[in-house]
Design goal:
By secondary structure, the chain is an alpha/beta fold. The chain is 19% helix and 24% strand. It has an 8-stranded mixed sheet with strand order 1-2-6-5-4-3-7-8.
């Protein structure tokens, strides 16, 4: 495992380096706001070699919980794209995940992390040796996008998922519940 940092993951992101050779990837972002949206695009063969599949709003708060992206990576491998596509998510991955994948990206999209500001076509670079994940989007464009970002409606009510989403902290701090703390994470 290697921890990457940069403009897209100020608090870090985790990449599993065992099981694949690629240590660098640059390509256009293909952005999805859920695992289901991403899987539909993979099934419809709308992902092409060189893409960086970005699955956001699947982090500790956004999921809620950190959904596992094994199905998407397995489908990409099944289409012969496992060695030519990268995946980035604020969700998680397992030891069975295939290919170059950055998970646990923090802060997550639901908290307004930079992954929430990515748009289709933005160039994303994952560089394992430099321990970096970045984009070529200009700083003034980031500022414009950040100013216009609107949080997704939070879960409400008394369900266990609503309570979890309200109390859970960022992945970079273990995605643990902030029970008893003075402020929400």
């Amino acid at each position: 495992m290697v921890i990457l940092h940069g403009p897209l993951a100020p608090e870090g992101g985790v990449v599993k380096v065992a099981g694949h050779e690629r240590r660098h990837h640059t390509g256009p972002a293909r952005v999805f706001d859920s695992e289901e949206e991403a899987m539909a695009a993979v099934k419809a063969q709308r992902i092409t070699a060189g893409d960086v599949v970005v699955v956001r709003y699947e982090g500790p708060r956004g999921g809620p919980g950190m959904r596992e992206m094994l199905g998407i990576t397995a489908a990409l491998v099944g289409q012969g794209l496992g060695d030519s596509v990268a995946l980035m998510t604020d969700g998680r991955f397992s030891g069975a995940t295939h290919g170059l994948m950055v998970g646990h990206v923090a802060p997550e999209a639901a908290l307004g992390g930079p992954i929430a500001l990515l748009a289709d076509g933005d160039e994303v670079t994952i560089d394992v040796d430099a321990r970096a994940i970045s984009t070529s989007v200009a700083p003034d464009e980031w500022e414009r996008r950040a100013a216009g970002w609107v949080p997704r409606p939070a879960l409400t009510g008394t369900s266990v998922f609503a309570r979890y989403a309200y109390l859970v902290g960022t992945a970079s701090r273990g995605a643990v519940l902030a029970v008893g703390e003075a402020e929400r994470p």
